[in-house]
Amino acid sequence: MEFPERSVLLGMSGGTDSSVAALLLQDAGYRVTGITFRFYEKDGNTEYLDDARELCDRLGIRHLVYDVREEFQQRIINYFIREYLEGRTPVPCTLCNNYLKWPLLQQVADEQGCDYFATGHYVQKQQIDGYWHITQGADPDKDQSFFLWGLPQSILQRMLLPMGTLTKTRVREIAAERGFLKAARKRDSLGVCFCPMDYRTFLQEHVTDGRIMPGNFYDEQGNFLGKHDGYPFYTIGQRRGLGIHLNKAVFVKEIHPASNRVILSDNLQALEQHEMILTDWNITNPSALLGQNDVIVKIRYRKQANRCTVTRTTDGNLHVQLHEPLAAIASGQAAAFYRDNVVLGGGIIASSR
Ligand SMILES: Nc1ncnc2c1ncn2[C@@H]1O[C@H](COP(=O)(O)OP(=O)(O)OP(=O)(O)O)[C@@H](O)[C@H]1O
């Protein structure tokens, strides 16, 4: 008996990972359609579209292009600017992945009649107690699970993740072995795609209406310490690049947008907090997370993992009780919950104390 060929829609950025994902999905017998979303084009550069199209031509697969620049501007870039102006720390990649990229892949897969959809993300998935979960990628240096806590079951169950079991080194080798040299040598993308590593320059260029003005640094007692360039240029916990020289290390403790005040502290312990409230949250399987005391919360991509207990609040948010205090929690940041290598959910930090 012949089984019909299964079809998959693959998000293709023109980069190494999604190029190798196309090869591997084809090897595994899927009928692959590539799609490149036009999210953002720096200085009008569309080379990534040509690279993705060329790769599809070489592999003999169909390639689609969807222009979503307006939606990306509204939902991701404008949000990014707005968050800084509200004294918060935005998470554009988390929002883009959970609320734009994967939902768009699902939508187009439905339009095109594709069974599955895929990306080159370094994550895996696993079914536990009947629920599909994101789990960490096998390459600890590339694992992207921290960004994917917001996906519903309808997406999780249809996603294919060919990079999940591989290391980046191996992925580059595969591209080279198969003669895809440009893909093999492409540089890894760094940071936020539309913003240089120094987000201040970006804000300076995009907020020109006087909402960012020089202001004052104060200590916790309200004593004037010096001038700053404008509160959106600082994040909670920041120590370097404050442009102020006191004969001791100081950290940003509070940001007050209305008064343009930034409060500094020389005591890292003063930045420690024990509780967080999350909005815009998603939980994969409530009984695996709520009220359990072996849950890990991460608010940074690397080098931080705290035990916590998560409960629902009466007004529909999540309350996170940290078992040990955690320093430098910024509102606007994402918190992702884990048990071992399994993502249990996450949300956006509204407040902490
Ligand atoms: N413009 C895009 N259109 C469609 N899919 C995309 C686009 N950008 C990224 N993706 C998908 O999301 C995955 C993760 O993207 P991300 O930018 O985080 O990783 P990356 O390391 O740059 O990946 P790659 O090496 O494939 O460029 C990509 O592998 C790709 O499958």
Describe the structure.
With 353 residues, this protein is an alpha/beta fold. The chain has three domains: 7-185, 3-Layer(aba) Sandwich (Rossmann fold); 213-266, Roll (SH3 type barrels); 271-352, Beta Barrel (Elongation Factor Tu (Ef-tu), domain 3). It is built from nine helices and 17 strands. The chain has helices at residues 16-27, 47-59, 69-85, 92-112, 153-156, 168-177, 181-185, 199-206, 286-289; strands spanning 7-11, 31-38, 62-67, 116-118, 123-128, 131-136, 159-160, 215-218, 224-228, 251-256, 261-265, 272-283, 295-298, 306-312, 318-327, 334-339, 342-352. A hairpin with a 2-residue loop joins strand 5 and strand 6 (131-136). The protein starts with 6 loop residues before the first strand and ends with a strand. The model has no long low-confidence stretch (mean pLDDT 95). Bound molecules: adenosine-5'-triphosphate. Adenosine-5'-triphosphate binds at residues 11-13, 15-18, 35-37, 39, 101, 119-121, 188-189. Adenosine-5'-triphosphate binds next to helix 1 and strand 2.
What can be said about this structure in brief?
Its EC number is 2.8.1.13. This protein is an alpha/beta fold and 353 residues long. The protein is built from nine helices and 17 strands.
Q: What separation lies between the terminal Cα atoms?
A: 63 Å
Portion of residues within helices: 25-40%
Average of the residue pLDDT scores = 95
Strand order of the largest sheet: 12-15-14-13-16-17
CATH-assigned homologous superfamily of the largest domain = HUPs
Q: How large is the radius of gyration? A: 22 Å
Bound molecules: adenosine-5'-triphosphate
